[in-house]
């Protein structure tokens, strides 16, 4: 089985550098995908409550535990706190729901999914009569205090952030008793995130790259949008190593020291995406690929009127 690099967190726990992404993986597809991934050697799953498929991920895990293919401690599992559960009183319950759906008694990493809190207690995307998201006044620094409590309770080994800007990370760092171990953000050659990655590193926060393949299945993709996987530069570099553009993109993250969570529900691609440990990009390749940067953010969480919207900041 491939020797997967492990990223060491600032609390000493380690995380496999590649994990299976499960955003957009539909119930009816995700169970088989998780089983195929575990059989292929993946030991890291990237989940979230809002993906609405954690129950099915849990069924796949149960099968693999029951078959004796893996034990709980062999696999790293991340989940994320959704925006309607950011009130400090709701965090423990939200994580307990995720644990029950996944069929686990702890996860390895729990992230605040977005810095923006939405109105609690109803729809996951509560909207007013004009279709605008209804906000909650909860401040993510107060959420962080509740995240620390779920570590104390043993419900998660580590906690971290997702989609936070530099300024927002700083605010959490100022009040943190338990430091975030990681920051999960969109990273690919069209949005190479150099500044934010360097900044997170300076704080000893590991970075996980989501949408590493450019998420061609994102629900809001429009005809004519650039298609990262078809970029000619990636094809050319791929030819040099006899690898596909997807494999080049995955190495682009790993060779920058990132953790990467490519999503697929197709067995052959799940296997292909893991078959990246017999080659390495050169510093020159990384620089060339990085020159595709075009501020090409794909996941901007449309509603920008929230005071904690992260993407108005430079980085
Ligand atoms: P599918 O799940 O149908 O196999 P991202 O991880 O950036 O969100 O991208 C996920 C998208 O990329 C999905 O549409 C997935 O398709 C597709 N994909 C995953 N792996 C590959 C691959 N090796 N080659 C081409 N497309 C891929």
UniProtKB/TrEMBL annotation:
Chain positions recorded as substrate binding sites: 113
Residues at the site labelled Lowers pKa of active site Tyr: 80
Residues of the active site: 51
Membrane-spanning intervals of the chain: none
GO molecular function: oxidoreductase activity
One Pfam family of this chain: Aldo_ket_red
Keyword Membrane applies: no
Stretches assigned to the NADP-dependent oxidoreductase domain: 18-291
PROSITE patterns hit by this protein: ALDOKETO_REDUCTASE_1 (PS00798), ALDOKETO_REDUCTASE_2 (PS00062), ALDOKETO_REDUCTASE_3 (PS00063)
Alphabetical keyword list: NADP, Oxidoreductase
Family membership: Belongs to the aldo/keto reductase family.
PANTHER family: ALDO/KETO REDUCTASE
Protein name: NADP-dependent oxidoreductase domain-containing protein
